[in-house]
Amino acid sequence: MVRIISLLVCLVLFTGGGLGAKELNLVKDSSFLAQDSPWQAIGADEAGQFSGDGWDGPGCGRLWRGERGEAFWIQEIQQLEPSARYRLTGYVRVEKPASAYLGLEITGEDGAPAYRGALMQVDPADGWVPLEHVFPGAEAAGFKLLAGGAFSGQMLWDAIELKRVETEAEAIARRLQALWDEHGRVYTGLIIDARGLRMQRGMSPRIYARDGREVYGTANISADALAEKGMAGYSRSLDEAVLHPLLSVSPEFPYTLGLVLPALEVVGPTRTSVIISNEGADQIERWTRVYDFLSEGRVIFVIE
C-alpha cells in the first residue's frame, strides 16, 4: 500500500490540486438558490431566482426579455490550470425557440476576449436541455462564465458546473486504491521464474497447473492485447522482471506489482510452456478476479 500512496502523493503534487480536485465545482450557486448570489445579469428586462421545478431542485435562474435579443447570467471564475482540462455543463429551458449559449469569456493579458463554449438551438418542447463543453485551461487575466443566449420570453438555467476533468493517471490511481483498500494488494502482472529449466522463447507460451489445468493460453488474453503486446515478455533476471514495463497498468501511472511464482517443469516439444504448482494456479485465479492481468497479456517469463 505504501507504493500506491507514494504514487498518489506524487500525482497530487504534479497536478497541483489532488485527486479530489475533479470533484470541486468552480461555479458558485450553481442552481441560483443563494440569497447573496454571485450571478449578475446583463441584457435582460427581468432577472432573478425562479421558484418552480428546476432541473435538479426547487429553483433555478430566470432571464426574461420582452423582445428577442441577447441576455446572459455572468459569474467571475477563479484561475484555471493551463495544463488541465475542464468540463462545463448546465441545463437550459426556454419559453420560445431560442439560441442558448453556455461558455467562458477568457480575457488575455492584452485585454482581448476569447470565447469557448457550447451553442445550441433549443425549443420549448425539449424541456430541460443539457449543454456541455470540454476545453483546456489557459493562462489569462480573467475568466467569466456566461449562461444565456438570444431569445425572447423566459429562459431558465440550472445545475451549472465547471469541473476539472479527471486525467487517466488519476482514474487509474483511484481504481487501484479502491481495489487495494478492499483486497489488501493489487497484482498488475504475473512473473514466472523459469531459470534453470532451459525454457525457450516462443510465440504462444502456455502455463499449466500440476493437475492439468491450463492457467494461461490464447483463451485468456484479449485479441487487442495479443495484437499489441504478444503473449508474454521475457527477462534475464528477476530484478529486471519486477520493473518490466509490460507489468505497468499504464504509461501514465507506472505502478507495478508482479505475482512471482516458480515454474516446476518446462513442457512441449519446443520447450516454450511451463507447469506450476496447483497452489500457484489457485493464486492466479484469485488475483485475476481482483484485476485481470492475464487478459491484458501482462506475463513475464524469467529465463537464462
Could you please describe the fold and organization of this structure?
- The protein has 304 residues and is α+β, with helices and mostly antiparallel strands.
- The chain has five helices and 16 strands.
- It has helices at 2-15, 168-183, 223-229, 238-242, 278-290, and strands at residues 40-42, 46-51, 59-77, 85-94, 98-107, 113-122, 129-136, 142-164, 189-193, 207-209, 214-216, 233-235, 258-262, 265-267, 273-276, 299-302.
- Strands 1, 2, 3, 4, 5, 6, 7 and 8 form an eight-stranded antiparallel β-sheet that branches.
- It is elongated.
> How would you sum up the major sheet?
8 strands, antiparallel
CATH-scheme architecture of the largest domain: Sandwich
Q: Can you tell me the overall shape?
A: elongated
Strand content: 35-45%
Counting DSSP E segments of at least 2 residues, the number of strands comes to 16
Classified in CATH, the superfamily of the largest domain is Galactose-binding domain-like
